[in-house]
Amino acid sequence: MFFITREKRSGWIFKNIMILVIFLQASLYSFAMGENVLEGAESVVLPCHYSGILPERNPTVIWRRYDLKPQTIHVRREDDDLRGQNQRFSGRTSMKSNALDSLDFSLTLRKPHHSDSGTYTCSLRDDREDITLTDVQLQVEVQQVEVKVQEGEESGVLPCKTTAHVEEDDTVEWTRTEPEFMIAYVYQNGSNKAKEQDKFYCERTIMNKAQVKSGDLSLTLKYPTERDSGVYICTFYKKSDVVRQKVILHLVKEKFPPWAKAFLVLFVVLLVFGGLLFPFRQYFKSVYKVEVDSGMKSVTLPCKTIVRLPKDVTVTWKNNTSRLVHLHEGCGKKLEEQHKQYKDRTEMKGNLKFGDFSLILKNPTDRDTDTYTCTISNRWGKILIKKQVLLYVKAGADSFIIAIDIGSGYSSYAFNVKPREEGSETQIKRWGKELGLDTPKTSSCILLDEHGDFVHFGYKAKTTYTNMTGEEAEKHHFFEHFKTALDCDDLRNQKIKAANNKSLKALKVFTEVLGYLKDDAMETIKAQAKEGEFTASDFTWVLTVPAFWGHPAKRFMTDSATQAGLVTKGTKGKLMVVLESEAALTWCLKLQSDGFITQNHSRDSQDQTAGAAEPDTSCNGLPKSQVAVDMLMKQEETKDLLNNHHRNGKGYVVVDCGDETIDFTVHKVMEGGSLKKLYEAPKNELGGQTVDKKFKVFLKEIFSNGVWDEYEQSFPSEVQKIMYDFICLKQLDEDVQINCPFNLGMLAEEHKEIETFFDSVEGASWDDGSIRISREKLKSFYDESLQGITESLGEILNKDLNIGYIVLVGGLAENQILRQHITDQFEPQYKVLCPLRPQEAILKGAVELGRNPKLVESQKKHPAWLNFFFENFKE
Predict the structure, then answer these.
(1) pLDDT tens readout for residues 595-650
(2) Residue 550 and residue 540: Cα distance in Å, rounded?
(3) To which H or E segment does residue 149 belong?
(4) Average pLDDT, rounded, for the chain
């Protein structure tokens, strides 16, 4: 039996009573408190006082925020214990040195940021239990100033000041957050970083360098207009500290001036006169534009004249490629020569006697977008009248779409030529069969001969060029990573250098690239099509570009596409230029919950398969430890995410993890599903090449004494294959093995036994013909990229953009190390999503946008007549 002596029983009762007293006393103090502070303040104190009895053994005070991960903000035992502290608060928290003696557990938070707002919990712990003492609700507010400027003034000043000393490497960023996000000015190293500035503010914003040094960060805005009204944020980045100030700019309009009244009267007269002539516009215009939605029953192509014509005229309607659309001779129509595309779809119902030769085209689709010519001639063939109609049929759910994504490192295209009711599925071109590869993208390389004529593109271009002799290579033009060379406004005349330092116009290079991708896509589609013929004009073409590209670069892509034959002058309406980020987000929002992946740390689950029904289009399938994520969403939320996600108002940070850069863009889903860009981060060099270069350096470290250098020079194609194998293997978060090519082994054996190369290298070993790289060494290749991604995301999330989701796409997002790092850093405060096969998200989303262009149509569209005027004026 178990006996307790009187002395032991008394001690046991006393200890439990003391614990009960501590708990009761602590519960008296467990209530919520509030603290408000302005961002930029030196510090804020979160109060927590205790008047009870401390536990006898290991008393510990813990400050937490339960909405963060890690949750720990500060821990005090005998001394501070910050090993598990959330890194956002590193170096910014402190408690009194005698906190446990004075029972003042208050926490001082230095340099509070807007993102520090939240509920902080102070608790007391011993070896047995954790007791909550108090909750403190902290609200960090941004300073706000209102400025009124008279419209017509030469300039206005947006004030912003700081007491901190401004150093050369500090950054001041002025942004406009409402009504739409724009970067007004970025000050660093004593000057403006013009490349990051929105064109709207180009040469209209100034910061005084001398005043900045004294802490005056005010922005001078020249020639302000009503369009400049809105909310501006001045953000001062000083190392790890961030200070913001909000400025609301109001433009006060001057009274209606006399000249404006006179102009208004003149405008009304012209409007009335124009209104009287409007019904007769078809009789006077030689070129008429018609715009219609796909799916309409019919569309009328107008052709009218007030000229009196003979009775027996011949009316011929043809498209831009001279296909016969409709032929009317004398008293009736003749359809024997009519092209089959228009069979049983045309008729003329107009009164020919009164000069109406209009054509009705039934069931128009975007394949009918073209320039149509109506020619009226007499019995001897003399042309009496000729008029043109520009028909633009908007793409629809059953449109033929080809999307092209030219990346800095890799490129490809996708297409869809089947109606939705037939179970249409977007297909992506497969590349690399000649090298034993099977990838959804190929290298962004192009090889041209000495005359600038096309030779090869992609893997084949790189392999061919690397195998050339020096003399032969000198004659050719080999361009790699050519997309990153676009860096000036005059892109039509810009030249880019080839590998041998020869130069060609960028327009020529991009035209050749687009021309090859167009021809290859048409051949691929024709090979798969069971019947029918296709031309480039049958398709809507979607080109993707980075979010930081301005209008000159987009216009440059349009010009390149036109010269490459994707579209003609008459079918430019069938070309869409969309942002890579909005394409990727469109695809992600379309997916159901089983269309996303997550990291599974359990080694037992690596034999599980991915839970998506889509066919595999990645390296050679998903890594086995990728499984479908069971998102905690209601069923109705997953049925149509694109139409529902605008309701919570949360924004999406799209992190496009590419080969050369990591692009960060913030979008918001508007009512109806359209996407609005709120912010794009400056360009960086954190992409997959950073990881690949670390791997190459490591191989050179292993195969020292010039072995790797000799191998790289002698067998470039094998090096290319090794890098491809690494791209697939680096997706894993475990030890990986790479087959050592025979030629590399032979070169190594000429120096010494191959096993000895690994003796002095940490993180790698020789495993019977393979190079084994440890999990820890593999993760080290990512350190630079992951640190940069974390810092960039932190800066974006600190902005007042109401972000709720982080969406990972691009080739580098295939990697478990990267995904897990971002998830650990930012969940659960932000939901981290990554689609299955994230490398394909941009292309698949671009096809979706091609079939539903309203998702990216500008909210401020000019009327058709104004667009027509602008086009002709530009020409």
Answers:
(1) 888 644 333 333 333 333 343 434 444 343 333 333 333 333 334 444 455 456 78
(2) 22
(3) strand 143-150
(4) 80
Cα–Cα distances in angstroms (integers) from residue 140 to residues 74, 109, 113, 828, in the given order? 19, 11, 7, 21
Written as one letter, the residue type at 804 is G
- Report the first-to-last Cα separation within the chain, whole angstroms: 104
Task: Quote the tokens at residue 591.
Answer: 């997916």
Tally Cβ neighbours within 10 Å of residue 651.
Answer: 19
Tokens of 574: 């069938």
Global pTM? 0.61
Instruction: Determine the distance from the C-alpha atom of residue 91 to the mean position of all C-alpha atoms in its chain, rounded to a whole number.
Output: 33
**Long-range contact set of residues 209-212: C-beta below 8 Å, sequence gap at least 24:** 212/166, 212/172, 212/187
Q: Which helix (H) or strand (E) holds 791?
A: helix 783-797
Asked if residue 51 lies in contact with residue 25, where contact means CB atoms within 8 angstroms, the answer is yes
The model's confidence at residue 336, banded by pLDDT at 50, 70 and 90, is: low
Report the candidate in 188, 187, 163, 191 with the shortest Cα–Cα distance to residue 175: 187
> What sign for the dihedral angle of Cα 293, 295, 296, 301?
positive
* Nearby residues of 83 by Cβ (< 8 Å), 6 or more positions away: none
∠ CA 677-679-683, rounded to 5°: 120
Residue 755 token pair:
């096993």
Other beta carbons within 10 Å of 412: 25
- The pLDDT tens digits of the residues spanning 134-156 come to 999 998 887 788 888 887 788 88
Instruction: Give the torsion through C-alpha atoms of 554, 557, 563, 565, to 10 deg.
Output: -110
pLDDT-derived band at 708, boundaries 50, 70, 90: very high
How far is it, in rounded angstroms, from Cα 579 to Cα 586? 11
Mean pLDDT value across residues 321-337: 78
Helix ranges (DSSP H) in 529-599: 551-563, 580-590
Dump strand ranges (E) for 395-505.
401-406, 410-416, 427-428, 442-443, 445-448, 454-457, 477-480, 495-497, 503-505
The DSSP H or E segment spanning 102 is helix 99-102
Residue 5: how many CB atoms within 10 A of its CB? 8
Report in angstroms the alpha-carbon separations of 200 from 185, 551, 809. Answer: 11, 11, 29
**Nearest CA-CA partner of 340 in 367, 311, 313:** 367
SS (H, E, C) 353-364: HHCECCEEEECC
Residue type, 516: Y
Query: Per DSSP, which regions of 259-400 are E strands?
Result: 287-293, 298-301, 314-318, 324-329, 332-333, 346-347, 359-362, 370-377, 383-394
Pair 174, 234: CB distance under 8 Å: yes
Token duo for residue 14: 């006393």
What Cα–Cα distance (Å) separates residue 322 from each residue in 317, 339, 558? 9, 10, 24
